[in-house]
Design goal:
10 helices; about 170 residues; Arc Repressor Mutant, subunit A; Rna Polymerase Sigma Factor, Chain: A; rod-shaped; mainly alpha
């Protein structure tokens, strides 16, 4: 783009910014879009040769950029809404989608391991509180929970095979 064209565009910076701000409703976003449009169009050098057509051409580029931003924001907003709806939905609670084998196999563990997993993983008790309940050190409790998880993981791998390696979600194991 010629230096004169660049100077003309820069001289109209405030008008361009107001134009974008009205369409986007956000000054910071308008500034970002304008900056990108300047950079994109100054690098390309694709401005019309006629200086009289320069300003309308750049407004058209800004309008298209604003439309693109609104489309992207709309798509992102719709995706977030769908995700929020899925999280709020009671159609498929996590408890029913996690492999049913876990409950069955947890009963095959050593009693202290099964107890540790029940209290820490299912009941949500902290390891420190679990240690206090069982009158053991916090380090001992942490080791017990770790070993219980490992024992359960091994049992799941034996029972479910590859399903266990992929997170045991929507398990079809018998």
């Amino acid at each position: 783009m010629k230096d004169a064209a660049a100077e003309t565009l820069v001289a109209n910076h405030r008008a361009f910014l107001r134009f974008l701000e009205r369409r986007l409703g956000d000054k910071a976003l308008a500034e970002d879009v304008l900056q990108e449009a300047f950079a994109k169009n100054l690098e390309k050098g694709s401005a019309p040769r006629d200086d009289e057509a320069l300003i309308p051409w750049f407004y058209r580029a800004l309008r298209n950029a604003a439309i693109d931003v609104k489309r992207r924001r709309g798509a992102a907003s719709r995706a977030l809404d769908r995700f929020a709806h899925e999280l709020e939905s009671d159609d498929a609670p996590t408890e029913t989608t996690v492999c049913g084998c876990i409950k069955r196999l947890a009963t095959t563990l050593k009693p202290e391991y099964a107890d540790a997993l029940q209290r820490v993983e299912v009941d949500g008790v902290s390891v420190k509180d679990y240690a206090t309940e069982r009158d053991i050190t916090a380090t001992n409790a942490a080791v017990r929970v770790f070993r219980a998880r490992e024992a359960l993981r091994k049992q799941l791998t034996k029972s479910c095979g590859t399903c266990a390696k992929h997170g045991c979600v929507d398990c079809s194991c018998e």
